[in-house]
Amino acid sequence: MLDVKFVRSHFDQVSQMMRNRQTDMDLQPLLDLDAQRRSILVEVEELKHQRNVANEEISKLKREKKEDPARLEHMREVSQKIKALDQRLAAIEQEFKDLLLLIPNMPHESVAIGRDEKDNPVVRTWGTAPRFDFDPKAHWDVGEDLGILDFERAARMTGARFALYWGAGAALERALISFMLDVHTKRHGYTEVLPPFMVNSTSLIGTGQLPKFREDLFKLENRDFYLVPTAEVPVTNIHMTEILDEDELPKYYTAYTPCFRSEAGSHGKDTRGLIRQHQFNKVELVKLVKPETSYEELERLLQNAEAILQALDLHYRVVLLCTGDMGFSSSKTYDIEVWLPGQNTYREISSCSNFEDFQARRANLRFRRRGQSKTELLHTLNGSGLAVGRTLVAILENYQQSDGTVVIPPALRPYMGNMERIEKQR
RNA sequence: GGAGAGAUGGCCGAGUCGGCUGAAGGCGCUCGCCUGCUAAGCGAGUGUAGGACGUAGAGUUCUACCGAGGGUUCGAAUCCCUCUCUCUCCGCCA
């Protein structure tokens, strides 16, 4: 959420931002509501002041065993007026808040203006694509041929966009989770947390999934519980409504959770394989930091995510998302795209963003500097470190051999009982 | 699922028959004094959010908030209703 005062004083800039993000929304109603809201506020607060003063006098009379029925009658009218105004104010504030929650974040000045992913500049490339003396298969073929991925039975027991992992496939997924968490906790200084896999609507508003992207979520019936679409939601909200001490910052958290996404609107896209599932595993990195450090923290967060791919020796590139491709809540986002030889393309495997104070304002994430009385909003960041299913995809495709087996990257072997190669499961 | 108890400031905790309680008292914290050091002692200060006026910076003032929402009343932390959460006992259970 943007600061209303900012929207008021930078109206043209915010309007231009909306166009740069390919979003169409008229901001004028928001300003009108804000003006109404403040004018009613002045009126009702004045009446409440009158009431408070009168109450003190009535109270004094009462103690002196005196009465003033005319006064009471007058105050009854004042109270009714206050009640009516309060109701109007509440309605206007609701409408105002609803609109404000729909305005996306301001992109950082370093973000290129562009329409879609074709306009995302490549920041850097790491490693080289492996060479094959045979035609590399797509991971769904590699996985099904080895008997470690089973889409058919998953579809039967649940539905499309779910997968059943068998044997070494299941173990590899689990190994990746442990490996990633270990790297981030032991080498990068993150604290591991294991949050609930369901969250309430307040948390989802806090991080920006609600109210605008409701259709992307799975919600439980008759309860205010949603399956987490990413660990970002519970983890970013850990400290909601608290006031942290400057000394406690920065906070670095890493969490494994499954992620649940309805994928509404992506029918027909990536229908085969593990790329786009309703449920997938992810290890997430979340940072809560002081504002002046957030961009430097973003670069480090990105490097922390890259370190996983480097340790697994997987070729990738980093792109900087342009204004038209960037997420609603983000000020600046880097995507890491891993090379998938079976599909001859780069695919997103991590998205690292700085949200500045956008989520902090929504989730009420504050801190206080040493010796200062004023509270300030934190800056929040997060990134995948990494999407586990897609990492498994990358391993199957990049490490496949001509005989159909898959070599396990050396870094993962300690997590796989020193297994060196996945062979056909019996 | 059944029965009961509770939710007040950073923490503990008092609020009587609704009215001078934004909230006693204590702890903690900050600043000052005192002091071989430490400790103790003394003094002052110490919630959040929003609005109005105003400033170079400051400041002045009003309103709201005692789990959340609603009701009664001239007036609610205090009374009534609904919800959420916590605790205790019983039942069930990984």
How is the secondary structure organized here?
Elements: H1 4-9, H2 11-20, H3 28-63, H4 69-100, E1 122-126, H5 139-146, E2 149-150, H6 151-157, E3 164-165, H7 167-187, E4 191-193, E5 198-199, H8 201-207, E6 226-227, H9 232-236, E7 243-245, E8 251-260, E9 279-289, H10 294-311, E10 316-320, E11 332-340, E12 345-356, H11 358-363, E13 366-368, E14 375-377, E15 379-387, H12 388-398, E16 406-407, E17 421-422
Parallel strand pairs: 4-8, 7-13
Antiparallel strand pairs: 1-10, 2-3, 5-6, 8-9, 9-15, 10-11, 11-12, 12-15, 13-14, 16-17
The structure holds one RNA strand of 94 nucleotides.
What does this structure look like?
Helix 3 (28-63) packs antiparallel against helix 4 (69-100) and helix 5 (139-146) crosses helix 12. The longest helix has 36 residues, at 28-63. 39% of the residues lie in helices and 20% in strands. The protein starts with a helix and ends with a strand. The protein is α+β, with helices and mostly antiparallel strands and 426 residues long. A hairpin with a 6-residue loop joins strand 13 and strand 14 (375-377). The model has no long low-confidence stretch (mean pLDDT 94). It is elongated, with a radius of gyration of 27 Å. The protein has helices at residues 4-9, 11-20, 28-63, 69-100, 139-146, 151-157, 167-187, 201-207, 232-236, 294-311, 358-363, 388-398; strands spanning 122-126, 149-150, 164-165, 191-193, 198-199, 226-227, 243-245, 251-260, 279-289, 316-320, 332-340, 345-356, 366-368, 375-377, 379-387, 406-407, 421-422. The chain binds one RNA strand of 94 nucleotides through helix 3 and helix 4.
